[in-house]
Amino acid sequence: MAQRALTRDSLESTLATEGIVVLDFGARWCRPCHLFSAVIDRAAERHRDVVFASVDTDAEQELAAAFGVTSLPTVVVFRDGVMVFSGAGSLTGRGLTELIASVRDLDMAAVRERMAAGGKIPTEEGITASDGT
């Protein structure tokens, strides 16, 4: 499955998807974004149950600002409508696969309970994305 383009208009329906949604924030002029886009495309072929969506930060500046994107590329991951990871920088294929595996392993009931109590998103509590090296 290829990446779908995400806009402000399609954000709500995309994030309402059950399961994992990976948002890739980038721009046409950003060389690392082009390289990372190829990693995302390969991951989309391997992880057909995951929704991969790209956000053109030049066209969707409000969306990028809403997610606090200050560096490109930036990856934001949701599971069952809950943001569970946000990080700037490119990942290798292995790093992205490890991130997806970590997100799959989350106990979402515990995540929701922790967040309802004012806790941090899982990224801030230990879900990390390695560069795959």
UniProtKB/TrEMBL annotation:
Pfam families per UniProt: Thioredoxin
InterPro entries membership: Thioredoxin-like_sf, Thioredoxin_domain
Origin: domain of life: Bacteria
SUPFAM superfamilies in the record: Thioredoxin-like
Domain Thioredoxin: 1-105
GO biological process: cell redox homeostasis
Protein name, per record: Thioredoxin family protein
Organism of this sequence: Candidatus Avipropionibacterium avicola
